[in-house]
Structure formats: structure tokens, C-alpha cells
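Render this sequence as a predicted structure.
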Amino acid sequence: MLNQGNILLYDSHFLYHLKHSVPVQVYDGNVHIQIGIIARFNEHFVEMEDTLYNRQRFTFISRPGF
């Protein structure tokens, strides 16, 4: 399990957040884009709120307790 503020890097991180509905914060560089729950993911994309985010471009931060 990741703590608040940790970066999601591995499939296991994304899977944990998906299974437990832990909120994730999305950044594009230093710009905050969204906070939401992961609907699904694969090795290239993460879907949140009907939007696909490229895992290579965006940074995903764990937000438990948000």
C-alpha cells in the first residue's frame, strides 16, 4: 500500500487503487489536472471520470483519505 503523496509507478499500485477505490491525483508536469477514482488501466493508459490519461505523460499520486 502507498501512503498519501506517493507516486503510482507499477501495475500493482494502480490495481490496489482500483480494487480499493483509493483516490488518485493526476499531474501534467507541475500542473494539477484531476482527482478521481481509477475506472480501469493498462500498461499505457489510466481511465478516470471517462478520461484516458497516458501513463508516460502524466504523474499519478496516491490520495487516500482525500
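Summary. The chain is about 15% helix and 40% strand. The chain has one domain: 6-62.
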